[in-house]
Specification:
The chain is α/β, with parallel strands linked by helices and 152 residues long. The protein has a single domain (4-150), classed as Rossmann fold. Helices cover 39% and strands 17% of the residues. Strands 2-1-3-4-5 form a five-stranded parallel β-sheet, with helices on both faces. Strand 3, helix 4 (84-90) and strand 4 form a beta-alpha-beta unit. Helix 2 (29-43) runs parallel beside helix 5 (131-150) and helix 3 (55-68) packs parallel to helix 4 (84-90). The protein binds ligand CA2. Ligand CA2 is lined by residues 12-13, 15-16, 19-20, 24, 75, 77-78, 80, 101-103, 105, 112.
Amino acid sequence: MSRLVYILNGPNLNLLGKRQPEIYGRETLADVERDCAALAKELGLSIKFLQSNREYEIIDWVHEAREKASGIVINPAAFTHTSVAILDALNTFDGPVIEVHISNVHKREEFRHHSFVSGRADAVIAGAGTQGYQFGLRRVAHLLDQAKSAKP
Ligand code: CA2
């Protein structure tokens, strides 16, 4: 299998760095993509970095990842707290899934405390800022390496 990792971003994350810097920081999504691409190179991974405001598009990308990718890092944004459909899609994916939140959702409003996606995620990273994406990528690389060395 490839060492391709899909990095999926949910609604409104296209505004990253442009609004609410006190919650989400000053880095834009393009900055996050650039940092992830550099780290991926170091880790021997390649990435496909995507953002959508549409639930169905994220579901379609998870389906595409089933065919093409070895791991998924996902910040489902508000869909985290609402989407059984994204959970169902992720449940069809065989490789590592890491859920990332830029903010610490547990320090915020009650409605952000529940995540449907966490029911599938192998790890959940919240509150590490945009660095969380890099932690997520490192974890995927580690799990892929482990799986490879466990093969007879
Ligand atoms: O902390 C996170 O990464 C979240 O997934 C971000 C979501 C929020 O609904 C989740 O509860 C936690 C919101 C993404 C909105 O992104 C914006 C970025 C900049 C300005 C406005 C929105």
